[in-house]
C-alpha cells in the first residue's frame, strides 16, 4: 500500500500571532531583511564585507572587478530571497519588498550565462573550470539554494521569472550529470541540490529533476570514491589545505547511502543529504531508503546530538565524531546544522506520522536555532557552544571558533540568512494534514483554514504553552447554514503529546477525556462536529535532565529544561566562575515570570552551592586545602536568550550536588 505523507499548510494560510515567536518573526521583516540587504551590499560598518551583490553585477557585465568572497557566496543572496519569499507569503504582500526582490531577480537573470549556467565565481574567475571541483567548488550546493529560493518566490507571488531562471540552470545540471555514457557520474561535495531538485519537480512536474536528484543519491559512495579520483589543480590544494588526506566520511561518500549506519562528517552536509533521502524515499516509495533514514536519525539524535538540538561536536571540519562525544565548550553545533536537523525531522515526521520526530524539531528550533540570532536581529552566532568562558576563546587555539558575543556578519555567512528563512517559514512546522486529519506538531498561537474530508474548517490556536502549559483550540465549520445542520462528519485532529510531558489533561467541549489513546505520540480526536473546543493542560514545570553516563563531558552534571526550552546559567545573574557551581536537585526549582527580563521570560531559581575562594587569596595554583562550600541560589534563563546582555560566562550543564 502506498504511503501518503502529511502535507504542510501553505504559509499564506497560517497566521501566527504568538507571544513567544512574534518578536522573532517580526524581526525578519522589520530588521533582519533590511539589515542583511545592507550587508549583502557592503553597507554595514564594522561587518565583514560580503561582496555578494557586487559579484552579480560583475558577472552581469555591469561593473568591473574580480570575484570576492567564498566560492559559494551566491548562496547568501539566494537565502535572503527565500526569506523574502516566505515573508511575503506569511506576512502579506509588501510592494516595496517585492519590488526590491524583483529587481534582484532581474540582476540574477542578467548574470546568467547564455547556456543557462549560473554561478558568479566560475563565471568571473574560472569560466573554463566548471564542474571540475565537485568536492569543494560548491557549484551544485549554490545551485540548490538558488532553486529553493526560486520555488519559494513562485509559491509566494505566482511570478515565474525566477523559476524560469533556475529551471534553465537545472536543465544544464540534468544534461551534465547522470548515469548515461558521456554524462558526469559525480555528485555534490556539499549536498543541497538534491532536495532542491525535488522541490523544483513538485512545482514543475518535470520528472528529470526528480530523476537527477535520485541519481545524485544513488551514485554517492558507489565504487571508487569520485572525490578521490577527481582531478583538480594545485590552486585548490592551496585554497583548501585542510582537505589534505581527504576522508570520504567528511562528505558522506564513504559508503552507498543505504549502507550508512552512523551520522558522519560535516554536520550540515549530512542533514541536507538525509533530508533529500527522506524526500526521495517518499517519492519513489523506497522502503530501503526510508529505513536508512531511520537508522541515521536514531544514531544522530540518540548518540550524537546535544540537549539543545545542536549537532557537530568537532570544531575541526565542523563534523560529527563518535557516539557520546559531546564536549560543551568547544563543540561546533552550527546554526545551519540544527536548521537542517529540523528539515530532516519534519520530513520524517510527515512520512511516518511519528511525533518523536517533531519532539526533536521543536528542540532544535526553540534552542540552537534561536540562540543563533540576537534579540535585536542584528548579530549572529555561527557556533553554538553549551559552555563559554570568554577569556579562553582565543585565536590560534582549539577554541578560536567559539565566540562569546554574536557577530555582525561572517566571511562565510551561511547561518544568518538561513536563520532568517527558517523564522519566516515557521508556519510550515506547526501543522501537517491529509484529506481527513489535521496534525498539530507545535503549539504556537495562530489561525488557519484547512479542509478535512472536503469540508472547510477555521482553526484558531491560543497557546500559553511556555507559560502555564495551557493550549486552547477552536475548530469551526465554515460551510453554509444548511450544511451546518449535519452532525459528525468524520474529520480528525491529532494532538502531539511531547515525549517529555509526563502529566496532562485534555478537554473536548468541556468534558475531560479519560484514558485517551495515544499512538506514535499523537492523541487522535475523531468525528469532528461543526464546532469543537479543545483544551490541553500540560504540566509545565522545570525539570532536571541528565545525560547517559557515556557522555563523559556531562557525567555528574545536570541540565534544566522547562517544556522544550533548555536553560543555562549566565554570569550576568550569577557572577563569574560558573564551573564552581553545584545544583541541589532534591530541592524543587522555583519559577518566576519576569516580564522585563529578555523580552519576558520564566526564569528558574535553583538552590545549590558554590566553591568559595576562601583560602586561595594568595593566588597559588595548587594546594592541599579542602573546598569550602557556600550556599547559593542560582538563576537560570532560557539558552536561546543567552548573550543578549553583557559579555560573560555561560553554562548549560552544572555539577549535581550529591547528598549522602
What's the arrangement of secondary structure elements?
Blueprint: E1 14-16, H1 22-40, H2 52-59, H3 74-91, H4 95-111, H5 120-124, H6 139-157, H7 161-176, H8 193-204, H9 207-219, H10 226-229, H11 234-239, H12 267-283, H13 287-303, H14 335-352, H15 355-371, E2 387-388, H16 415-424, H17 427-430, E3 431-433, E4 437-440, E5 446-452, E6 455-464, E7 470-477, E8 492-496, E9 504-508, E10 511-512, E11 518-519, E12 522-525, E13 531-538, E14 542-545, E15 557-562, E16 565-570, H18 571-574, E17 581-583, E18 590-594, E19 601-611, E20 629-638, E21 650-651, E22 654-656
Parallel strand pairs: 4-8, 17-22
Antiparallel strand pairs: 1-5, 2-21, 3-4, 5-6, 6-7, 7-13, 8-12, 9-10, 9-13, 11-12, 14-15, 15-16, 15-22, 16-20, 16-21, 17-19, 18-19, 19-20
Strand order of the largest sheet: 1-5-6-7-13-9-10
Sheet with most strands: 7 strands, antiparallel
**DSSP helix count?**
18
Q: Indicate the overall shape.
A: globular
- The termini sit apart by 58 Å
What's the number of extended β-strand segments? Answer: 22
Average pLDDT rating: 93
What percentage of the residues does DSSP assign to strands (E)?
A: 15-25%
What are the low-pLDDT stretches, counting only 5+ consecutive residues below 50? none
Return the structural class: alpha+beta
* Cα-atom radius of gyration: 25 Å
Helix content: 25-40%
Amino acid at each position: 500500500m502506498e504511503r501518503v505523507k502529511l502535507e504542510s499548510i501553505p504559509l499564506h494560510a497560517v497566521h501566527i500571532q504568538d507571544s513567544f515567536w512574534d518578536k522573532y518573526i517580526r524581526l525578519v521583516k522589520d530588521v533582519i531583511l533590511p539589515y542583511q540587504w545592507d550587508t549583502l551590499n557592503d553597507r554595514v560598518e564594522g561587518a565583514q564585507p560580503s561582496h555578494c551583490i557586487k559579484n552579480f553585477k560583475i558577472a552581469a557585465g555591469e561593473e568591473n572587478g574580480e570575484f570576492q568572497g567564498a566560492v559559494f557566496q551566491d548562496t547568501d543572496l539566494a537565502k535572503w530571497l527565500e526569506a523574502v519569499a516566505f515573508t511575503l507569503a506569511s506576512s502579506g504582500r509588501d510592494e516595496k519588498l517585492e519590488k526590491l526582490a524583483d529587481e534582484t531577480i532581474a540582476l540574477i537573470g542578467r548574470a546568467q550565462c547564455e547556456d543557462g549556467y549560473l554561478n558568479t565565481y566560475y563565471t568571473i574567475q574560472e569560466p573554463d573550470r566548471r564542474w571540475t571541483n565537485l568536492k569543494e567548488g560548491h557549484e551544485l550546493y549554490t545551485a540548490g539554494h538558488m532553486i529553493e529560493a526560486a520555488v519559494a518566490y513562485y509559491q509566494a507571488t505566482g511570478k515565474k521569472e525566477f523559476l524560469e531562471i533556475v529551471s534553465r540552470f537545472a536543465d544544464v545540471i540534468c544534461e551534465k550529470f547522470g548515469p548515461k555514457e558521456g554524462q558526469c557520474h559525480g555528485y555534490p561535495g556539499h549536498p543541497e541540490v538534491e532536495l532542491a531538485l525535488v522541490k523544483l519537480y513538485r512545482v514543475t512536474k518535470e520528472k528529470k529533476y526528480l530523476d537527477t536528484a535520485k541519481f545524485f543519491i544513488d551514485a554517492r559512495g558507489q565504487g571508487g570514491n569520485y572525490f578521490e579520483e577527481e582531478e583538480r589543480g594545485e590552486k585548490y590544494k592551496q585554497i583548501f589545505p585542510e582537505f589534505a588526506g581527504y576522508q570520504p566520511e567528511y562528505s558522506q561518500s564513504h559508503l552507498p547511502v543505504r549502507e550508512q549506519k552512523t551520522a558522519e562528517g560535516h554536520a550540515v552536509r549530512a542533514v541536507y543529504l538525509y533530508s533529500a533521502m527522506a524526500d526521495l524515499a517518499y517519492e519513489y516509495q523506497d522502503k530501503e531508503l526510508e529505513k536508512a533514514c531511520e537508522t541515521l536519525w536514531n544514531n544522530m539524535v540518540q548518540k550524537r546530538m546535544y540537549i539543545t538540538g545542536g549537532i557537530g561536536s568537532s570544531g575541526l571540519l565542523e563534523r560529527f565524531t563518535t557516539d557520546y562525544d559531546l564536549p560543551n565548550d568547544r563543540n561546533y553545533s552550527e546554526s545551519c546544522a540544527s536548521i537542517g536537523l529540523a528539515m530532516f525531522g519534519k520530513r520524517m515526521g510527515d512520512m511516518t506520522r511519528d511525533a518523536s520526530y517533531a519532539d526533536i524539531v521543536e528542540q532544535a528550533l526553540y534552542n540552537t536555532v534561536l540562540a543563533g540570532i540576537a534579540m535585536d536581529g542584528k548579530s549572529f552566532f555561527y557556533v553554538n557552544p553549551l559552555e563559554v568562558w570568554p577569556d579562553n576563546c582565543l585565536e590560534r587555539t582549539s577554541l578560536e571558533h567559539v565566540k562569546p558575543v554574536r557577530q555582525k556578519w561572517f566571511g562565510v555567512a551561511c547561518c544568518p540568512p538561513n536563520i532568517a528563512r527558517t523564522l519566516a517559514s515557521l508556519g510550515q512546522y506547526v501543522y501537517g494534514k491529509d484529506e481527513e486529519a489535521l496534525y498539530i506538531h507545535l503549539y504556537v498561537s495562530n489561525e488557519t483554514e484547512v479542509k478535512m474530508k472536503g469540508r472547510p474548517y477555521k482553526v484558531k490556536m491560543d497557546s500559553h504553552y511556555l507559560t502555564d502549559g495551557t493550549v486552547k483550540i477552536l475548530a469551526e465549520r465554515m460551510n453554509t447554514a444548511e450544511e451546518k445542520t449535519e452532525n459528525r462528519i468524520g474529520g480528525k485532529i491529532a494532538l502531539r503529546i511531547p515525549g517529555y510531558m509526563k502529566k496532562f489533561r485534555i478537554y473536548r467541549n468541556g468534558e475531560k477525556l479519560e484514558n485517551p489513546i495515544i499512538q506514535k505520540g499523537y492523541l487522535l480526536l475523531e468525528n469532528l462536529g461543526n464546532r469543537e473546543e479543545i483544551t490541553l493542560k500540560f504540566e509545565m514545570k522545570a525539570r532536571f535532565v541528565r545525560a547517559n553516563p557515556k557522555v563523559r563531558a556531562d557525567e555528574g552534571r545536570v541540565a534544566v529544561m522547562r517544556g522544550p526550552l533548555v536553560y543555562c546559567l549566565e554570569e550576568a545573574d550569577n557572577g563569574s566562575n560558573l564551573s564552581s557551581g553545584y545544583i541541589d536537585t532534591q530541592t524543587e526549582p522555583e519559577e518566576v515570570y519576569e516580564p522585563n527580563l529578555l523580552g519576558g521570560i520564566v526564569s528558574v531559581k535553583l538552590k545549590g552551592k558554590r566553591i568559595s575562594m576562601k583560602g586561595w587569596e594568595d593566588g597559588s595554583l595548587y594546594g592541599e586545602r579542602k573546598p569550602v562550600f557556600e550556599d547559593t541560589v542560582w538563576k537560570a534563563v532560557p539558552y536561546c536568550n543567552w548573550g543578549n546582555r553583557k559579555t560573560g560566562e555561560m553554562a548549560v550543564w552544572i555539577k549535581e550536588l550529591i547528598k549522602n
